[in-house]
Amino acid sequence: MSEQNYARGRRIYDADSHVMETVNWLTEHARPEQAGLIKPLATEKGGSGVYQAIAAAERRRADTEATRRLLEQPLISGPKGWGAYGASTPEERSHALDLLGFERQLVFPTFAMGQFAYSRNPDVLYGGAEMLNRAMSRFCAADPRLLPVGFAPLDDPGLALETVRDALGLGIRALWLKSDPAGGRSPSHLDYDPIWDLLVRARVPLVLHIGGGRGLDKQYHANGHPAVTDWLGGGENLRGKDYHAISHSPQNFLTALIYDQVFQRFPDLMCGVIELGATWVPGFLRILDQGHTAFRKAEPLLQGLEARPSEIFRRHVRVSLFPYEDAGWLIQQAGEEVFMFASDFPHPEGGRDPIGRFDATLDASEIPAPQRDRFYHGNFADLFRLEA
Question: Would the pTM of this model clear 0.85, i.e. be above it?
Answer without folding.
Answer: yes
